[in-house]
Amino acid sequence: MTGKKHQKKINLALQGGGAHGAYTWGVLDALLESELFDFEGISATSAGSMNAVVMVAGYLEGKEEGARKALNAFWREVSDSASVFCPASSNLTSSFGRLPDFFSGWSADSINNATHFLNLMSQNLSPYQFNPFNLNPLQEIIEDQVDFERIRKTKEFQLFITATNVKTGDARIFKTQELTPSMVMASAALPNIFQAVQIEQDIFWDGGYVGNPSLWPLCYEVETRDILIVHVNPLVRNEWPKDAPSIENRLNEITFNASLLKELRAISFVQKLLGREMLKMEYQEKYKDILIHAIRAEDAMSHYDLASKYDTSWTFLHRLKNEGREAAKKWIEENADSVGHHSTIDIKTDYLEQKTA
Question: In the list 22, 38, 86, 99, which could disulfide-bond 7, CB 3.0-4.6 Å?
């Protein structure tokens, strides 16, 4: 992204989390509105990948305002398409119509229980059974709204989209010049909801298992040192989960945060070596002192359970957007001046040695 003279260069690391990606939408909307930042690299996974490619496509069409309009149009279409994040939705939509209509008049607890039932159903019936035709409204939305040919030609952004190679268990990073709709869908292919995505000779699941998101491309393949991590999954919860939905939710969060914590531990180790001048001169040039920033999700997202990741009602998505906007505006006010100079979080105390209440 070729920035204006006053813009600060920064990389974005966008987590995934189903409908909770609308929180990231709000964060991006506020960052774009401020016009303070020039995004060089964007590493993203799952719903974060959707936000990333939609934002880039919109920016190439109409700069910051074009990106904001594109994100709004995408999430509006997600809502209009109803239950695109909901497991077993194909069966339900064929029998009952759109899920929001089916759930109309139900209490919040009833909807939560119904969604938990669908989760259990998806664990016993694979997507190859309950969705044999591999219907996926998200792919239609992405293909309709994103000009991938234009993205592949751009030099303004470096995109890094993570998916999990099912055969090897390794991360596959899809880059700007090769991006296709299938690669973005591979990054978001939760195995209990969507069929694996085949690309060439390999098959892929959601990238959150191996990189949510992957930080290493932002350390070694771009020039900018600053990385802003936009969280969706809370890292810390003080409550003790005891009922089945709460246990399932916490397991989901821990699983999809694990790879991020491992990468942050590696960055912290390199920072320690650089700070203490423990690397030989010939190795120092291979590493750089990464500056880490973060918009954490505990305050906003701890109120929501796993079922809400499938809630695509416009009211809910817009609420998440507003919460993301407020978090980003606060971060900008408190930390924008530090970008390019020093980290605004301490990896050791804020991530590796976190305190609970």
Answer: 38
